[in-house]
Amino acid sequence: MKWVSCISQGFIEVSGQRYDLSHMRGPTFELAIAATARFPALTLRIEVEFTSHCVSFGPKEGETLDFDALGQDRRILDHRQVARAFCFDRYRWSLSLPTLVRTLDGHFCNFTGQGNWLVIRAIDDQGREVDYEIYFRLRRHDKDALRMVVESAYVRALGTPGPGVPHDRKGRIRFQVMAAKVFRGEPLRDPSHNRR
Question: Where does the source fall among the domains of life (predicted)?
Fold first, then answer.
């Protein structure tokens, strides 16, 4: 089933169990940005869209997913028409996404070189602290709004290769600063590239 169809009907059914997707119908929230010496205060509307990658996984490079083994009802076609599999773990974590994106004003976002991402420290079912990685893009939408597309969100398994949390944490920017710069059309520069 196409992701847009899943969102439209508000759920996905896997092995006879219905998983509610109404929380994936992107929220809208307001972000207040304080005045600076150069710019007046402003209030932006942030319109959020969640992609299927927040609740599904794709094939490893060079492989394909076996839906005969996984179950045909787990197949979700993403925005590029690529088949992905509904992921029970990503789904469970996705339930907290609307609340997390509404509280971004107090967070720093790390640069990846391809967009921006945020790491939230969270506690899993076993009481362990984990990094819940949220990958997103932000762009101006209209005169007082920004569009945030949450491209993916998941807990990175220990030992899994990937970007992970930068050890030096130099390449980061406060979400409010990022939003103000995107709204004003200013470039976002990774501050760690200026340091030697």
Answer: Bacteria
**Looking at the chain, which runs of residues are DSSP E strands?**
11-14, 17-20, 28-33, 42-50, 56-57, 75-77, 83-86, 108-111, 116-123, 129-142, 145-155, 172-174
Contacts of 136 (CB under 8 A, 6+ apart): 115, 116, 117, 118, 148, 149, 150, 151
DSSP code per residue over 85-105: EE-HHHHHHHTTHHHHHHTGG
C-alpha distance across the termini of the chain, in Å: 49
Q: How many CB atoms lie within 10 A of CB 103?
A: 11
- Three-class SS state of 77: strand
Nearest alpha carbon to residue 87 among 131, 55, 50, 125: 55
Question: Rounded distance, CA 135 to CA 194, Å?
Answer: 23
Distance CA 172, CA 169 (A): 6
Model pLDDT for residues 30-59, shown as the tens digit of each residue: 999 989 999 999 999 999 999 999 999 999
- From the centroid of its chain, how far is CA 181? 19
pTM for this model (two decimals): 0.88
**Over the stretch 162-182, which tens digit does the pLDDT of each residue have?**
555 554 445 788 899 999 999
Q: How far apart are CA 34 and CA 158, in angstroms?
A: 38
- Comparing CA positions, the residue from 144, 69, 148, 38 lying closest to residue 101 is 148
